[in-house]
Amino acid sequence: MLLVDSLIVIGLSTVSLGTIQEADGVKEHTFQLCNVGSEKVILHQGYTSCGCTTIDFAVGKEMAPGDTTAVTLRFNPKGKGGEFYESGTIRYGEERKYIQMALEGNCITSEETLLRQFPVMVDDNLRLSVDRFDLGIIHIGEKKERTVVVLHKESDNLQERIPIVFSPDSKTPKGVNHYPYPIRVKCKGEEKKITIILDFLLR
Hints:
This protein is mainly beta.
């Protein structure tokens, strides 16, 4: 039990949902709070760490010593692929003390979300988050950094982050440039060359 002032969460204050599927929709868990103090408290307000999570409890409820009440956290995994940790907090008592609960786990992203996150198709096994960057105005010797994320569908949708580091030299023509920047990605044991376009204005 986690002791926080006069309210405690009975059992675990952080509950693991394990591995869930985005396509399966909202997941929830109901926590039980108990007033172990010697005075009554009132539950004033609740909030969560993200808009993907909601908290449901009896706002304004007066809890005498020994009273218990239910608090439900609901997590909507839509567009939230990967590991997650989302909390819900309740403010209570005259001093606005707080108690917190949380849900954690790993979300398997749906195919629809993956297509939105990685819209550039290289082949059946590789997709990119982007294949073009606008670097804006840049000067000789100045360095610009970006990141391309590669989705490896053949490796259970593994996501590989590849840094893009570019600095124009004296051979780069002034004015508007569309610079081909090569990156190399391994797929099924073979190296594949992919070109990323860097748009910039050199002054």
